[in-house]
């Protein structure tokens, strides 16, 4: 019965999404995210030496750029290496924030609280991105505080790497104490902060180095329970994912938990279920992350495979992988990770059509609900006019993050409308379900009044009331204007006509 219900839900969502795309300029529901990496100061803060004032101003500039581009979600790295970009009782301040690990910002402020507030002010979601197992980014160059967990519990860590990429310290995934520590960190985050999601990337067990085995033999001998070593490693990652899923659900039920894995689960040569690819490493066999199991079990709410290869790549074709992931979502959300950072890196990525074609391709699948781009700083250069393509075409109209009915499907009440002078109206919300915005939609004349047939043209961030100048709503010629309430879970009310 449960399987039949899930299938029905998927078919319903599929039909809605197809109809939405078929009858409007851009989808009303679409995840449009950007990764903001803090490790090695890739995106923010751009330097370890920025003052607090400069840090804040830089983050606001980043948000405003992405808002202009039509984005609706920021995925921000808040725990790059067992450190924190927020005050934590478990891990020290990140060196990427102040230059020295453990050193708080001066004058003091909470960067995470600031980032969440500024992101929400602009009607975007904030997903906290954590790296699960990396503990010291580079043994030679990283600042390591006396209060860092590697100093307090050195027995929890293993060294792995080479001279090319540098040696790193990793949490030993086989230790129960490590899983407990990570669980405490996550629970602290989701308890104290108004997050929309918890997000983890592809770094579970480290990427394999030829001729070098990850040094966990002693742990395996103690905790292996008679399992094959590779099965045991996967079970360690499974345990962490299940624990975090339970923490998120029990602490803040509306919050989502997502994973951004390496783009290939397994090659077809390794498994009949695998993709028709020839990846040198895979999630399942090298990183020990069984993404499909986590989707099947419902331990994660969304998956963002990093499809950083171009369309037509000889070993890992974007189109082949896009199709494969769409066939393996198990009813959960699929957002595609785009490698916009690869702009100009080869012939394919010197084409202005690469990103637009990737968006067109994913929108042809009703089981894909959006995109996430790596990473933020690339947009500052506007390679091949991709910012303009998003603003003027693909993300011309705003979109709401797709709701997840398995988390919440309660419909908020319609707003009350008071007509004012000079073609303006006042919207007031008095429902029990908390809201975060009003959505303004247009609908062609003589079209049935349905959200999936209308075009969302404006979102107004508010939890209670707003004044709307109807003359300033875009693209209203020969169209009717409607409003909906949007709740914290992105569910919308019934449409109410304004004009």
Structure description:
The protein has 499 residues and is an alpha/beta fold. The chain folds into 2 domains: 2-394, TIM Barrel (Alpha-Beta Barrel); 416-497, Immunoglobulin-like (Sandwich). It contains 14 helices and 19 strands. The strands form 4 sheets. Strands 1-2-3-7-8-9-11-12 form an 8-stranded parallel barrel, surrounded by 4 helices. The chain has a 4-stranded antiparallel β-sheet with strand order 16-15-18-19, with no helix packed on it. Helix 2 links the parallel strand 1 (31-36) and strand 2 (73-79). Helix 2 (52-68) runs parallel beside helix 4 and helix 6 (176-192) runs parallel beside helix 8 (229-251). It starts with a helix and ends with a strand.
Give a quick set of tags describing it:
single chain, 499 residues, alpha/beta, TIM Barrel, Immunoglobulin-like, eight-stranded parallel barrel, 14 helices, 30% helix, 20% strand
């Amino acid at each position: 019965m449960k399987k039949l219900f899930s299938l029905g839900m998927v078919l319903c969502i599929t039909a809605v999404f197809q109809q939405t795309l078929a009858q409007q300029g851009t989808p009303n529901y679409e995840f449009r995210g950007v990764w903001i990496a803090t490790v090695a100061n890739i995106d923010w803060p751009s330097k370890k030496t920025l003052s607090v004032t400069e840090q804040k101003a830089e983050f606001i500039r980043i948000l405003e750029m992405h808002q202009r581009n039509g984005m609706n979600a920021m995925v921000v790295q808040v725990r790059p290496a067992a450190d924190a970009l927020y005050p934590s009782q478990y891990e020290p301040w990140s060196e990427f924030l102040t230059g020295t690990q453990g050193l708080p910002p001066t004058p003091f402020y909470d960067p995470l609280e600031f980032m969440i507030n500024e992101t929400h002010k602009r009607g975007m979601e904030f997903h906290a991105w954590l790296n699960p197992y990396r503990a010291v980014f580079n043994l030679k160059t990283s600042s390591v505080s006396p209060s860092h967990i590697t100093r307090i519990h050195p027995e929890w860590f293993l060294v792995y790497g080479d001279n090319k990429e540098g040696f790193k310290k990793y949490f030993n995934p086989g230790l129960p104490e490590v899983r407990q520590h990570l669980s405490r960190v996550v629970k602290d985050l989701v308890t104290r902060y108004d997050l929309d999601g918890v997000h983890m990337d592809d770094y579970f067990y480290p990427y394999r180095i030829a001729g070098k085995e990850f040094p966990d033999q002693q742990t395996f001998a103690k905790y292996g329970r008679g399992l094959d070593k590779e099965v045991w490693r996967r079970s360690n990652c499974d345990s962490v994912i299940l624990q975090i899923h339970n923490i998120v659900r029990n602490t803040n039920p509306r919050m989502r938990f997502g994973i951004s894995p390496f783009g290939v689960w397994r090659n077809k040569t390794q498994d009949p279920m695998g993709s028709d690819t020839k990846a040198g490493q895979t999630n399942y066999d090298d990183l020990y992350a069984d993404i499909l199991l986590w989707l099947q079990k419902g331990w994660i709410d969304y998956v963002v495979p990093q499809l950083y290869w171009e369309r037509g790549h000889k070993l890992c074709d974007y189109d082949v992988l896009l199709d494969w992931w769409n066939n393996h979502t198990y009813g959960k959300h699929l957002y595609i990770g785009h490698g916009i950072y690869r702009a100009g890196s080869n012939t394919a990525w010197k084409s202005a059509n690469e990103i637009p074609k990737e968006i067109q391709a994913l929108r042809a699948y009703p089981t894909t609900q959006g995109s996430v781009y790596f990473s933020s700083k690339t947009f500052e250069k506007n390679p091949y006019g991709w910012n303009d393509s998003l603003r003027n075409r693909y993300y011309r109209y705003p979109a709401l993050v797709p709701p997840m009915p398995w988390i919440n499907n309660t419909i908020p009440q319609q707003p009350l409308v008071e007509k004012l002078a000079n073609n303006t109206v006042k919207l007031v919300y008095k429902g029990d379900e908390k809201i975060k915005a009003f959505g303004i939609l247009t609908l062609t004349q003589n079209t049935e009044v349905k959200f999936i047939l209308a075009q969302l043209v404006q979102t107004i961030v508010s939890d209670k009331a707003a004044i709307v100048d109807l003359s300033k709503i875009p693209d209203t010629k020969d169209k009717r204007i409607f409003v909906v309430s949007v709740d914290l879970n992105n569910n919308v009310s019934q449409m109410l006509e304004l004009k």
